[in-house]
Amino acid sequence: MDNGDVPREVDTSKAHTARIYDYFLGGKDNFAADRETAASAMAAWPPVRTAARENRAFLGRTVRYLAEEAGITQFLDLGSGLPGVGNVHEIAQDVNPAARVVYVDNDPIVLAHGRALLDSTPEGKSVYIEADMREPESILEHPVTRDTLDFSKPVALMLVAVLHFFPDDDEARRIVEPLVGALPPGSYVVSSHGTAEYEPAAIEAGKAYTRGGVGVTGRDADVFADLVFKGLTLVPPGMVVVSEWRPEPGAILPPRAEISMNGAVARKP
Question: How large is the angle between the packed helices 221-228 and 169-182, nearest 10 degrees?
């Protein structure tokens, strides 16, 4: 990426989760610090790139399920990251052109590229807002959020591969509870989260992130479920490794130890 295209407020000397993820997915919107942290994570635990790609595929399958089978037309995607192939709005609007999506991130590069690359259908709407997940009320009350989403109707809340960047359980719960509480009945929550329960060595990738200045912690399935899905109804197959959530017919699934990320979709009664 040409540093001449970078917003002045971006510190390219520090790694950022969205840009590390972009690198794992084969993107070009990343810098030396991001690539160094990514390389350290891959050296510490080589399957980390496979895990990132399987998580992205999980995102795509869950959005298609929600749009096709659950009839969801509104999506709130937190920590959305840099635009790539198979964004939430692209999948949802492929099913229903009237689908509306709000993306939330606090990396100026994500915002700059998101606004330039997002191309909604005329019938629907797709927007980015700059906000911090640690302030969920500001996200819910943001005028763009309110202008785009109708909270009297079901909304899908997407928390995909973001909560493991909040090591403190109480802080993560403080983020999740207001967001889920604001959803009307019939809404859905989609989330995935890193874990070391299938492969203890996956912890080493997290340590590499931390050395790069990005705090990360794994949570086992029961802790993750209590944090995000308490009081909600899990959609079959329930809480599983992301690659095993309604895989494409005939798909060859990688071993769980190479993914080490759980995911689920749940409905709010």
Answer: 40
Residues 3-267: name the CATH superfamily: Vaccinia Virus protein VP39 (3.40.50.150)
For residue 130, the one-letter residue type is E
Q: Are 76 and 102 in contact (CB under 8 A)?
A: yes
- Distance separating alpha carbons of residues 23 and 17, to the nearest angstrom: 10
pLDDT digits (tens), the chain, 269 positions:
444 455 555 678 888 888 888 888 888 888 899 999 999 999 999 999 999 999 999 999 999 999 999 999 999 999 877 766 678 999 999 999 999 999 998 877 766 766 655 678 889 999 988 899 999 999 999 999 999 999 999 999 999 999 999 999 999 999 999 999 999 999 999 999 999 999 999 999 989 898 998 889 999 999 999 999 999 999 999 999 999 999 999 999 999 999 999 999 999 99
Whether the upstream peptide bond of residue 184 has omega within 30° of 0, thus cis, is no
Listed residue (86, 135, 79) closest to 107, CA to CA: 79
